[in-house]
Design brief:
Elements (H helix, E strand, L loop, with lengths): L17 E9 L19 E9 L2 H6 L8 H15 L33 H30 L20 E13 L10 E11 L6 E21 L10 E12 L3 H22 L2 E2 L2 H15 L4 E8 L9 E8 H6 L6
Parallel strand pairs: 5-7
Antiparallel strand pairs: 1-2, 2-3, 3-4, 4-5, 5-6, 6-8, 8-9
Helix pairs in contact: 2-3, 4-5
């Protein structure tokens, strides 16, 4: 039986796909979750984006900057949009009034979240700015091409050379965004990290185009705990440092992402506190114990847990085990109960 088609059409990538990147953009957020849970406190945020488009061939062939993506303009637009949208989640121009999943649905609760309070909203503002600039640039190139098609300049009568082939086109656009909020969590040394991939998608006839969030990922790295862990006699004498990382990934704009956003602060604290109270012989058992906390106690659908021991082997910086477990796994396996 044929699979039902998605209500949103995503164009195939063009044969030549080029990228513009802005790396480690400093985007101070007017308000964002912070380690001490104080509301409305400005917080640091580092963003990186990669805008994929078709293509830089014309700009390279003619050495003409007007045929390229202006990344200086992109940076200025990001700064402005973050400031303007931070306190205006209900504005009709807010990007999350339009961003949808591949199934054509959207997370209604995100419409009331200010930039910084929900990393998905911040990343949406970044992606919207990049895709919007791609649209503007492609429109400008089309206007130039229309003028150049005239055999003579209407003012001077001098012939004008046609622009190079393969100009920038707006039909396909893809923006990958990475965010890092280093001060979002007290017990995680590397804070909260988020990644999203947004593309132009086309709805049914006459319904227009909208940004589609294809995939999302959340990471919490560097949860430092201290527990008794190991089978060797010397490892049973006292607690050793254990570094825990949690990763969540899946399709964009679905309910699982909202669960992560709603629980990650309390969940990180619970993992750190409960691990500190444990004693295990194997890293596998500890990792499974952590996965149970994240999925069963906090309702997350699936998690990848990495547990590392910095002190296990003298000439190895860290050794560890990574597992992926789901709620469904614990419903059918009686493991890691404490």
């Amino acid at each position: 039986m044929a699979q039902p088609s998605s209500p949103v059409h995503i164009p195939q990538p063009p044969p030549v796909l080029d990228n513009v990147q802005l790396r480690d953009i400093q985007l101070p957020l007017p308000a964002a979750p912070e380690a001490w849970h104080r509301p409305d406190k400005p917080q640091p945020c580092t963003a990186t984006l990669k805008l994929s488009y078709s293509s830089a061939i014309a700009s390279a062939a003619t050495d003409d900057v007007s045929l390229s993506i202006d990344y200086g303009k992109l940076f200025r637009r990001l700064e402005t949009d973050i400031k303007e949208m931070a306190h205006k989640p209900s504005s009709p121009d807010h990007p999350h009034h339009n961003m949808i999943s591949l199934e054509g649905t959207r997370r209604e609760e995100m419409k009331i979240s200010a930039a910084g309070q929900d990393p998905r909203v911040t990343a949406g503002i970044v992606a919207n700015a990049a895709l919007g600039l791609l649209d503007e640039t492609a429109a400008g190139v089309r206007r130039m091409a229309h003028v150049h098609q005239s055999p003579r300049n209407s003012f001077s009568g001098v012939g004008v050379d046609a622009p190079a082939a393969y100009p920038i086109e707006a039909e396909y656009g893809r923006c990958e965004v990475w965010l890092h909020l280093p001060k979002a969590l007290l017990r995680a040394e590397e804070g909260l990290k988020y990644r999203s991939v947004t593309v132009w998608g086309y709805k049914a006839e006459n319904e227009g185009r909208c940004p589609v969030v294809l995939e999302e990922e959340f990471r919490i790295d560097g949860i430092r705990c201290y527990c008794v862990l190991g089978v060797n006699s010397h490892e049973r004498v006292e607690k050793q440092a254990v570094i825990v990382s949690l990763a969540f990934s899946g399709p964009g704009q679905l309910a699982w992402g909202s669960t992560v956003v709603d629980t990650y602060q309390a969940m990180t604290r619970a993992v750190a506190e409960k691990v500190d109270e444990t004693t295990f012989q194997t890293v596998e058992a500890l990792a499974t114990f952590i996965a149970r906390i994240v999925t069963v106690d906090f309702g997350n659908e699936r998690v990848t847990v990495l547990v590392e021991k910095p002190s296990a082997i003298a000439f190895v910086q860290r050794s560890g085990v990574e597992i992926t477990r789901s709620q469904a796994f614990f419903e059918s396996h009686e493991v890691a109960r404490r």
